[in-house]
Design a protein that fits this description.
The protein is an alpha+beta fold. It has a domain at 2-97: Double Stranded RNA Binding Domain (2-Layer Sandwich), CATH 3.30.160.20. Helix content is 38%, strand content 17%. It has helices spanning 28-32, 50-58, 80-97, 112-132, and strands at residues 2-3, 9-10, 15-20, 36-42, 69-74.
Length: 138
């Protein structure tokens, strides 16, 4: 069972973990040992709250397919267990990102006194600059 936060947990049977061979450098060990982990998590069939499912499906994250499946490939570590923990942690962080509700921004207008101050300072600055210019005699 994967605990996301105090209220949300994912049962182990909803997460599919598969051991695969790692890519990249590592000598002969890479060809023999399946140490990388391929994690699959179906969003639509998950026991997550509906609003979190909707946010995940609407996300533009590359790890989420069009069919609504999260795919995470963990191959950073040499051992399968570390890669399994890494994959589960990354899934947990991805779901946590989508549980937070962004605060709605309300447009505000400046106070009249603030507008007056700004315009007065602009006039003073304009006057100062105009006094610096050369006077042309006729």
């Amino acid at each position: 069972m994967l605990k996301i936060n105090r209220h949300i947990t994912i049962p182990a049977h909803e997460i599919t973990l598969t051991a695969i061979r790692s890519q990249g450098a590592g000598g002969q060990n890479v060809n023999k040992v399946s140490s990388a982990i391929h994690l699959r998590f179906e969003i639509k069939n998950a026991s997550l709250p509906e609003h979190i499912k909707q946010r995940l499906l609407a996300s533009t994250d590359n790890r989420i397919t069009k069919e609504g499946c999260i795919i995470i490939k963990a191959q950073q570590w040499r051992t399968q267990e570390k890669n399994r923990q890494d994959a589960l942690t990354r899934l947990q962080q991805l779901i946590l990102q989508h549980t937070k509700v962004n605060k709605v921004r309300r447009a505000t207008t400046p106070r009249n006194s603030t507008i007056k101050k700004r315009l007065d300072s602009k006039q003073r600055r304009s006057k100062t600059k105009s006094l610096r210019s050369k006077m042309i005699d006729d």
